[in-house]
Amino acid sequence: MVGFLRAFAAASAVPAAAAAAAAYSLSSPSPSPSPSSSGPSTTKLRFPLPASFHSASAASSSTSGRAPNAVPPMAAAAAATADLSATDKESALPELTTEFMVDMKCEGCVTAVKNKLQTLEGIKNIEVDLPNQIVRVLGSLPVKTMLDALHQTGRDARLIGQGNPNDFLVSAAVAEFKGPVVFGVVRLAQVNMELARVEATFSGLSPGKHGWSINEFGDLTKGAESTGKVYNPPDHVSDKALGDLGTLEAGENGEANFSGSNEKLRVVDLIGRSIALYATEDRSDPGIAAAVIARSAGVGENYKKLCTCDGVTIWESS
C-alpha cells in the first residue's frame, strides 16, 4: 500500500510542474520600457510577475536547456532559412524599433493586438497609439514574424517604419522585386554605425541554393547583368566583399526567407545601388533578377491613416 501511494505522488508531481511552467511561459516578464516619443494617448505594455513565478522560471530553464528569452523554434524557423554566415544564422537579430499601421477602432482592438504580440518571445516593449493606429515594437524578431502575428488577430497591418529614432539620417532602405517571375522584398535597417539588419522574403525561385549580393550600380537595363560587381568599399579589408550576402535556399515551393545582420554595412551608402539574385550559389551566371535599393521610412517618418470604408482598405498620407 505504501509503495502504491509513493508511486501515485510521484506521478502527480509531473503535471503540476508542467502547469507551473506553462503559466510562466504565458506571463514572461518584460524589461522596463524605453521612453516613449508619442503623445499622451500612447499606452505602454507592462506585465510584472509575482515572485513565485521566478523560481518556476529557473527550474524550467535548467531542465529545458533554453534561455527564457530565446527565440522559440517556430520563430527561429521563419527567421533563418538562409544565412549570411553560420554565426548570423545561429544568433538572434539585434534589437530594433519597428512601427506598424494596424486597423484598430477601440480599446478592445488594442488589447487583442497586445495580447497576441505578448505571446512572441524576443519582444522587449510594445507601445500603442490608438488615435493614429500605430503599434511600435522594440525587439529582436523579424518583421515577417510580427506581421504574421498581427494578421492572425484578423486586422489589417502594414510595416511603416524601422530603425533607431533620431540616430541616423538614413536608417532604413528597401529593394522590391516585382516579377514577372521572381517577387520579393529586401529590407535593410541600421542598428548602429557598425551593424545593419537584413531581412528578405522571395517567391518564384527555382528550388535550391542561390547566390545574392548588393551590387555597385542600380542600372537594370540588362537586369542583374548590368548592376556591376559586388559592392565593396575601398576601406573594407576582408576576404569577403561587404556586399556579399551569401546564399539563399529556396524550398520546393520556390520561396526563401532570410533574417540576419551584417557588420560594417551602412544603409546610407547603399541607396541607388542594387540587390541581385543568381541562379547558382557561386554567382557564376549573369543573374536572374535585380532591384534598386531605395530609401525607406524610419521610425516616426511615415504616419498614415487607415480607412476601411466601403470594404476597401485605403492608405492615405497625412
- Assembly form of the protein: single chain
Strand content: 25-35%
Shape: globular
- Give the terminus-to-terminus CA distance: 76 Å
Rg estimate, integer Å: 22 Å
Q: Helix tally? A: 6
Strand order of the main beta sheet, please?
1-3-4-2-5
Roughly how much helix do the residues carry, as a percent range? 10-25%
Topology pattern, helix = H, strand = E: HEHHHEHEEHEEEEEEEEEEEEE
Subcellular location: Plastid, Chloroplast
Organism: Urochloa decumbens
Protein name: Superoxide dismutase copper chaperone
Keywords: Chaperone, Chloroplast, Copper, Metal-binding, Plastid, Signal, Transit peptide
Task: Describe this entry's structure for a reader.
- With 318 residues, the chain is an alpha+beta fold.
- The protein is built from 6 helices and 17 strands.
- Strands 1-3-4-2-5 form a 5-stranded antiparallel sheet, with helices on one face. Strands 12-8-7-6-15 form a 5-stranded antiparallel sheet, with no helix packed on it. Strands 11-9-13-14 form a 4-stranded antiparallel sheet, with no helix packed on it.
- Helix 1 crosses helix 2 (51-64).
- The longest helix is centred in the N-terminal third of the chain and has 24 residues, at 2-25.
- The chain is globular.
- It starts with a helix and ends with a strand.
- The model is unreliable at 4-91 and 304-318 (pLDDT under 50).
Summarize this entry quickly.
The protein is of the alpha+beta class. The chain has helices at 2-25, 51-64, 73-79, 86-90, 107-118, 143-151, and strands at 42-44, 96-102, 123-129, 134-139, 157-163, 172-178, 183-192, 195-203, 208-215, 221-224, 244-250, 256-263, 274-277, 289-292, 294-295, 304-307, 314-317. Helix 1 (2-25) packs across helix 2 (51-64).
